[in-house]
Task: structure prediction
Amino acid sequence: MATRDSPDFNVGVEEEEEEGTPSPSSISPPSSPLSYFDRDRHVAFFEMLYNLMPYHYQSQEINRLTLAFFTVSGLHLLQALDRVDKDRVANWVLSFQAHPRSRAELKNGQFYGFHGSRTSQFPLNENGVSVHNAGHLASTYCALAILKTVGFNLLTIDKESILISMRNLQQPDGSFMPLHIGAETDLRFVYCAAAICFMLEDWSGMDKEKAKDYILSCQSYDGGFGLMPGLESHGGGTYCAVASLRLMGYIEDDLLSKNATSFVVNVPLLLDWCMQRQAIDGGFQGRANKYSDTCYAFWVGAVLKILGGYKLIDKIALRRFLLTCQYEFGGFSKYPSELPDLYHSYYGFTAFSLLEESGLNPLCTELGMTDLAALGIL
Result:
């Protein structure tokens, strides 16, 4: 898979607009946006990205597997997985896995998951010792998701090395670091750990009870979830919390249709927070008083889908907003009338899949990929 490399996998957390950045309302909308989802142009756009990434993505090289996930899974959402050389992609992804030299090394604190790119696969030092040469949780999530998408049998992977070493990353409060040498700990990496265990069908890689307690500590007074305890509610953090609890089996699908009187989370408050994220233009915002943004149609929409509240949104208005972000040559932008990028294009597709657009495969909301890939049906 030829690329010129990849964007940071923030799992629903992207940089907000800087001071001085033009607001969406100050940008002239496209003179005549397409009134329909143009699948053929999106397929052509993603086929181009699959064959060669534009040079603009060079600064994202360290997260190359992330770009590959968006590209391959995007083509699958578009029902165009036939454009992908599945065996070649699988072999390429497998080449990024970190392997211990012995079982004893699984207790050395490193994480033997997948590297994000060749850049992070450091060579051994002069003594033949691997220094800072372990995997990353987000890259491992992306790697496994790609492998499932191309039909690779995950039962043949050395999952023991991944799961045993992944426990080294879980902190006393239940959160996860993304890699062993130290980094931020927040809901993004709890989600990655939960998704990894779910895809490998083995929960020995984490203490689920501790992870659950950490997630619940992140629910804010307004019902949403911050990325860490005490932080402002955020669309991406809320998705990571709810999807993780769903994957771990702590909440049922379509909670609103159940007659239970109590749940592990405050569902009415959470539902209210999510519903307030649909703005007057029909799009979804990631936080209160922010502009609507293509990707949050997935991050917040998926939460509502899991809760059983997606039927409550204004789907016509949301579709209208998303179409203003559709680029005439394929892909989606963050805001109306801007150039498309891979991240927002992918989540534009997932948003339309939630809207049950024809020509798209249905979505597994908890894993952020197609139902077919999640179920292993290709």
Observations:
- Residues 1-9, 15-22, 25-31 have pLDDT under 50 and may be disordered.
- The two ends are 20 Å apart (CA to CA).
- The longest helix spans residues 64-77.
